[in-house]
Amino acid sequence: MNNSPDFDVNRAVELVETQPNDNESHPSAGGGLPVIQYWVEKTLTPTGLKLWQTLNHKSACLSCAWGTGGQKGGFVNEASEYLQRCAKSVEAIASELQPAINREFFQKYSITQLQQLTSQECDRLGRLNYPLILRTGASHYSRITWEEVFQIATKAFQQPAQRIATYSSGRSSNEAAYLLQLLMRSLGSNNLADCSDLCHAPSTVGLKQVFGSGTSMVSLESLKESDCVVLVGSNAPANHPRLMNELIKLRQRNGKVIIINPQIEIGLVKFASPAFPIKSLLKGGSDISTLYLQLIPGSDVALFIGLQKSLIEQDLIKKDYLASYTDGWQEVINYAQQTSWETITNTSGLSIEEITAAAYLIGTSERVVFAWAMGITQHSNGVDNVFSIANTALITGNAGKLGAGTMPIRGHSNVQGFGSMGVTVRLKEEIKQALSQLLGHPVSETPGYDTRALIEAATEGKIDTLLCLGGNLYAANPDLKQAKFALSQIPTIFYVATKPNLGHFHGLAQHQTLILPVFNRFENPHQTTTESGNNFVRLNDPGTSHLQPSEAELISEVELLTEIAHRLHGESPINWRKLQDTSYVRELIAKTIPGYQKIATIDKTQEEFTIEGRIFTQPKFATSSGKAQMFVTPLPQLNLPSKTNFGITEESTGIVLILGTGRSYGQHNTVVYQQGDKYRGMPHRHCILMNRLDVQNAGLQEHQRVYVKGDVGELDNIEIICGTIREGAAFMFYPEANILFSANSDRRSGTPAYKRVPVCVYVK
Predict the structure, then answer these.
(1) Which class does domain 643-762 fall in?
(2) Translocase as a keyword (predicted)?
(3) CB count, 10 Å around CB of 23?
(4) What is the CA radius of gyration of the chain?
């Protein structure tokens, strides 16, 4: 094949432009007027003034990990650019500004009644305002005092180290995260499960092996220098809208955006951002995708090996770079060359022309950023998916220079900060040594339970005490029946939260379930910090709650954790109550967490910073050799079961599809803010998005109500919605669809394969 191939790159783009609009109510672009209308509606509510005050508060956004807010102001990013808030921010803040739950509510409604609520209904109950407990045999949650909470916690955490565990989300601060892991390791336990185990763990595991660092090597500053972004398995318009501003600006400077996703997300084709009002309001939005590839779900490795093969054939690889800065490159090149095009195209479902067009765009660009979200990680071969992306970046020389590199997109505002603080079962050796010195004894070497291992251990009755710092452990897991049973085998569970969620009513402990209300990020009485997905540390100012002390007995997570630790340890080996001063916590973080030295003086300097040792602008990496390590990635075997595997006859009306689960437009993690999804034309939570040809071939009709059956569960009365999703694939909302399937997890990271779930869609 010649260096200048004789094909038209734009022909592959026509695949997107000629897709039928299956629902006339679909918007022609993401964002736009509906976002502005939503802001106006929220502004005109009784809490509108408080909403705007909070949006301008100097604290990091509660939503995704793109890091707006902090000391530069609520609407400003780390590059001092304004208008960087999005509808997700407004949703999250508006939810936190709800009034306190009526004090008689939990006396009036039994746990059986509360279990009938949806996720949205749980969230709309309002703010939790005093500690609650559900005891064995009780039908209602009842109020208890904080003193009773600490007495129960003291006893519960005196159980053997291997029988206590925590689970956390990124809703809290670096300081709370650091104290959580410090408390657990002071007790000799490494059971620090985290929501990242269910999403980006393959990114962390894979990137650490390749580059020696498990986070993005691309800063916002670096992204602004890119001339090509390859965005894989991400619905950024709904989940990371701030990223869309950067893609718009990239297209304005004649850059290219390659989208890889089995489903055409309209916002990835065209997006109208309020930060660009002329284009948003007068021109219908900005073009995003240069090329859109709809691959078979789970075939990402095949596609990236195809890209590597095409880059080799077009003589667009950087052999001198590979020889100087990588190990294992020749094996990767050989594997790509030896893999036949027939195997690649059959596995990925993409044509040679499409793959070659994408490879040409990548290979002829100067600075390429490879970005991905959970469409890459939530597979049984998630780590291999990450390896294959990293390999492609390396063979084109796009790692270790400004404007290029690998960029996992974190979906929760401080989930990466939790990992940095040591809330992980894969603790770095240097942190382990520093913590051992701080605690005055070696940190336990007993392997800890990640999230799926925690559920399995609880199922077997191996956990006595569980503390959940935010999150929704019940609903976030696959096989909700198993999750519910597992949690019911734990004697004591503490849920630390600001608002009720499904887990508080379904994830009930064997003997006592406690719900502990805390301040949110912008209400904390002390300064805290958070970390963005691009390694930027934000400083959050103190704040006050709209809930008055007379109606709410709230404390901070920092106070909660330090008081438990004090009652367990006194002042040995640390003055735990002194750690209620978060500036002291930051001193300890600076001494024990690599790259965080500047946090020791952030109170005085007010200087937010990029963490050292993670942004690679030179091809010298954080591995022992300084070279990137490349790994051969075997093609996945993507087999489909038959109807009979689901106990359904082949003659029955229906079809077997590959289901991917994900968030709706108005959703953050398991919290649902809006029932429908305007982008996909899905009017409620009980829909399945299918390709029109699949619907026709199965003898079904759009809007028909069907059964959807997985390997462990079934849902009925599910409405079929036709959309621009690849033939053979389907989409349903998380967490409702989690009841369908068991945990087919990646063995190296423990992350379940939410994005490739075989299901049968049928009628009885």
Answers:
(1) mainly beta
(2) no
(3) 15
(4) 25
